[in-house]
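INTERNAL TRANSFER SHEET
From: sequence group
To: structure group
Subject: Homeostatic response regulator transcription factor HsrA

Please process the attached sequence and return the structure record in the designated field. Keep the field labels unchanged so the import script can parse them.
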Amino acid sequence: MRILIIEDEISLNKTITEGLNEFNYQTDVAENLKDGEYYISIRNYDLVLADWMLPDGSGIEIINQVKSRSPRTAVVVISAKDDAQSEVEALRAGADDFLAKPFDFSVLVARIEARLRFGGTNLIEIEDLIINPDEEKITYKGQEIELKGKPFEVLTHLARHRDQIVSKEQLLDAIWEEPELVTPNVIEVAINQIRQKMDKPLNIATIETVRRRGYRFCYPKGV
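Return from structure group:
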């Protein structure tokens, strides 16, 4: 599960990040609205935790962007505002939950777990192909495909952006925790594993290479 934390209070940001990592959540961190919007534009999240008051705007402003991109992604707003009117405003703006500061970390984790359960599945279903990001599982015509790790994440990201050309740099930023520490050829390795472990045995094509531009998810048109 991947969570985006948008919080400008550095100490709180660090506490939340380290705590969620201990619960095996993958986290990205932004300290302002602009950086939060950037992360949302390149990555898919199960949940976004957004502070209401940020240096360059309001965390409320990001809700529509999150929901238009992925309706199932939960948004939890945290705020120093602790009145009922603020909570109502956040929920009416589309937030899935609201938590007033200061809060106990265990309460935050419980709220996140509840939201993720309520959010349901993120299944990607394209004709006979089903990709389940929550369970890292792929099935084709009822047959389970053994594809794990980064190749699975690459396939999932491309499937979520089907009919779009995604560059190697965009894939690195979206999937690798520290993209600056790896070389672009890791994408080629992942694509090759998808083709060898999935496309070739099933006699289908899922990934199209677009010369000098990147990759595009092409199933079922590539059959």
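Handover comment: The CA atoms of residues 206 and 219 lie 5 Å apart. The chain has two domains: 2-119, 124-217.
Transfer complete.
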